[in-house]
DNA sequence: AAGTGGTCTAGACCACTGT
DNA sequence: CAGTGGTCTAGACCACTTA
């Protein structure tokens, strides 16, 4: 488990010395202090994938209520330092994976190990905001392709691709088979178009129930919502709304997609 | 205040009918249900800028503990629907502002009303991760320019720009005046370089204490951290770490920066 | 069945904002 | 000063995973 060299008054969470641990008085909130202490312990005393003591235990060690401890863990999870799974425990998260979103080709496989997995294709009326981007009447039906993006086998994003019928004129009527087969043919037709440009926007959101399920997270988990407008032949050919796991992903843009950045210095693997 | 047309069993939060409001039994968590109800009420019954009943009052109306209500409000704030200020109250947030980050010119003022406000320039050793991006020894000192980005007068981002001495060779030694004056001259020197390319990454984080203060948020508030690597003359000339308010900002990339998108359909202003 | 994290309660006090 | 949101407590029960 590696005790490492701790500097200060040694607020040890990896040791057996329980109860003696006290938070010295501070003007700042306890959970903030706690987060800092835990963060340092994570750097020095724990390996990636290692499982932490359970919440009741940790709370007792630090002499705080479980709710307070959880506030600290919540933040660390938000920052991608921890991963919590109900019924299992809290583990030290690996550094975030860089996920390229700026590459021009629409279905590009991205870095090695990156895939889009076509889910299905239905017909539906897009949300008002998407309809506006597409420049169609709110209420007009469009093709909706559902895809899942995998990196190293792990799902990192769930996407809804809104494709107006006008963008894929050579396709049979919307009804027919609504499975992955149709999804793929819609994508194939789309890629025939020459892309003029793409606009992209990123914002913070919380996962809808369906997305959460596919991303293996609880509903409401923080996500990065990437909205992309694909412009071809002078008009908006499609709009994509992709929901990326905020805890595990670092979205990369630009010419050479700088992967290989690690935010957390001390990396070791759990035994 | 506008009562609007509510569809379902009328879970009214804007009315005087208190106490009668009950959450019907559901397999999903209360706070999730609550969030949905509040979200709909926000769309139909409230105007932007309007102030909501206080938390104790709302909790009572819905027959839940305050902590549970707060869990719902937390999510709505995360999604940018609400703004809470201690000592004041909870108000309905305006739609997120689109903030352009993809434009090529480094100090570009962006959309009308957009400014970078130079703060100061100190000398320091960058974090290990930045040092790696810059390709310098960890421990080597660089210029650190602090800037604040304003949109329509509101601060939206706090930036730290790391500039190795090698990138601005014509500048006097690092000591001299560490104020905004030096910051501006560093920026001026930087812009002399011809930019080859930029790599950019976006990830979720929580605001450090100093950034939080400048962004008028509490420490730990959710932020979007944009890390940019500026490449000039074949090497990394500078690295910028910009911290954007996640609640108020939608980061836009690409050719034409699609502003004017509103996620929230019914927009009215508070009286 | 035992152990984990997730939800929820009913209080309390604190820090900050306005008047 | 009164009123707001922010923090904190000490419990309880639930949903889920694993053995």
UniProtKB/TrEMBL annotation, chains A, B:
Q: Does the keyword Zinc apply?
A: no
Domain HTH gntR-type as annotated: residue spans: 28-95
Extract the Gene3D superfamilies matched here: Chorismate lyase-like, Winged helix-like DNA-binding domain superfamily/Winged helix DNA-binding domain
Q: Which InterPro entries match?
A: Bact_HTH_transcr_reg, Chorismate_lyase_/UTRA_dom_sf, Tscrpt_reg_HTH_GntR, UTRA, WH-like_DNA-bd_sf, WH_DNA-bd_sf
Any Pfam family hit: GntR
Q: Which keywords fit this entry according to its UniProt record?
A: DNA-binding, Transcription, Transcription regulation
Segment Disordered: which positions? Answer: 1-24
Note the PROSITE patterns from the entry.
HTH_GNTR
- Protein name according to UniProt: GntR family transcriptional regulator
